[in-house]
Amino acid sequence: VIVGIGLSDYPKAPHLTAVQHHAQALQRALADAGIPKSAIDGYCTAGGMAAGDDPVTMAEYLGIRHRYIDGTMVGGSSFEFHVQHAAEAIRTGLCDTVLLSYGSDYLSRMGRSLGTGGMFRSTRVAGPMQFEAPYGNSLVGSYALVARRHMHEFGTTSEQLAEIAVGVREYAGLNPHALYRDPITVADVVASRLVADPLHKLDCCVISDGGGAVILTTAERARDLRQPAIAVLGAAGGMTHWNIGQMGDYTTSAAAACAPEAFARAGLLPSDVDTIQFYDSFTITVLVLLEDAGFCKKGEGGAFVAEGHLRRGGRLPLNTDGGGLSSCHPGMRGIFLLIESVRQLRGQAGAAQVPDCEVALAIGSGGWLSCIGAVLLGRS
Amino acid sequence: MDVVRGTAWNRPLPEPDPVFAPFWEAASSGRLLYQECPACGNRQFYPRALCTACGADPEWAEAAGRGTVHTFTIVRQYGAPPFKDELPYVVAVIELDEGVKMMGNVTGCGVDAVYVGMPVEAYSVEAAERVGVPFWRPAGDR
After folding, report:
1. What is the ipTM of this complex?
2. Residue B57 CB burial class (10 angstroms; 0-12, 13-18, ≥19)
3. Residue among B12, B84, B117 whose CB faces A122 most closely
4. Which of A41, A79, A98, A356 is the most exposed place for a label (fewest CB within 10 A)?
C-alpha cells in the first residue's frame, strides 16, 4: 500500500539540482506518511538523466540501506514498473518499506530543448539508433508519426486531439504551481505553431523542473501511519519497441496488452475507474492509451474525447493536477501520475477533487509509446 | 538504387558494428539490404545477430528499393545543426515492398506533397568509406 507522497519544488526550481529534488521530495514524503526514514529498506529509481542519479549512488546519497533495490529504467513509465515490483517485493517479504524517488532539473539545466533535438548531438552514433539518427527526427516527431498514422487510419482530427490539451489546462488552472494556468480553447491549440506535423506546440507537454517520492509499506504497518493507505490493486507493464522506427503498428501501444492484465489482476473493469492519470507527453499519447486501455474501441478515441468525458465534471477526469501538458514535465513524468492518483483517492485534491473517487488508473509511457506501465490504485 | 557521391556529410554518422556493417557497405554500392530468416521466413530491419521471431541465424536479402510512406512528419523545429538549417523536412517510416519498415527522409518534392501511401524509391548517399545512407524520393513509373 502507498502511505506517503511528496513533491519537490516545481515547475521552476533553479535553486535545486536533480539530486536535491530527490532529497526534498523524500523529506516531504516522510513527513506526509509519518514514518521514520530508517524504516525504508527498499529503493527504486530510474537514473541516467543527470549526474549521480543512478540507483546505487542515489541510495548512498539518501542513506538508504536497502534489502531490495530496483533500477528499472524504461523511460518516463519507470515508476509504474517500480510500483509493480515494489508491491510484489513487499508482498513476498523481500523488504517492508520501499521508497520510489525521482528528480530532475531539466528546465534550469538544459532549457526547453528536450523535444526538438536537445537530447541528441553526437556526430557518430553506435547501436540501433544509427538507423534513425541520420534523418533528424525529433522526440516530438516520433509521436507525430503515431498521430499521423492514427489520423490516416481512423480519421482522427487535430481538433479532437486538442480537446485533450484543453481539458488538462482547465485542471492546471486549479493548481497554483502549474506552469501554464490560463484557459485555452481548441482553436488556440490548432492555431499554435506546428512543431512536427500534425502536432502543434499546445499538443506538446511543457518542460519543467520537479521531483517526487512515493513510499510503500505493508498493510499492517500502514495502520499506524498518518495517511489513509492507498492500495495497489493491480499493475502490469510491457513493451512493443524501444526506438520509434521499430514500433511496427503505429497506432497501438503495449497498453493494449498490459492494461487488460492490470484490470484482471485487480478484478476491475474500465467502467470501475473514477479518474485517469495518463502520461500526457503529447495529446496523441493520451488518445492511444485511452483506446488501448479499453475505454473505447481502437480508432474511436477521437470521438470519445470530443464528447468531453476527460474534462472536469466528465465521467473520466484526466490529469487533475494539470498534467505534463500544462503543469509539470521534468523529463520523466511517471511518478507524478502515482502521486496525483493518491491525492485523489485520499480526497486531498482540493478544487480538483473528483467526487467519490475510489479507483484511479495511472498509465505511464516510456520512450516513444514504447514501454507502458499500468497501475490501478484504490482506497484500501 | 542510385548512389550520390562526393557530397560533404555533416549529419550523425553511423558507427557500424560487425552485424550492421554489411548493410551500410551494401548501401554505399547501391544495394538496399534487409534480413530474412531461413528457418521461419521472418523479415526484419534493422539487422540483428538473430531472428527476432525464432532466434535462428538470419540471412541477408536485397530489397528492390521501392516502398510506400507508412507514416511521416514534417519536422519544423529542431535545435541542433545540421538539421536546424534544413527545416522543414520530412521524416517518414517507409514500408518496403518486401514488408519491412525503415525510417528515412523523403526528399525531391515539397514537404506538403508527401502523403501516407505515397510511392517512393530509395537512393543512397555516401557518408564515409563503406557507409552509404539510404534516402527516399517520389517513385517514378512502377
Report:
1. 0.97
2. exposed
3. B12
4. A356
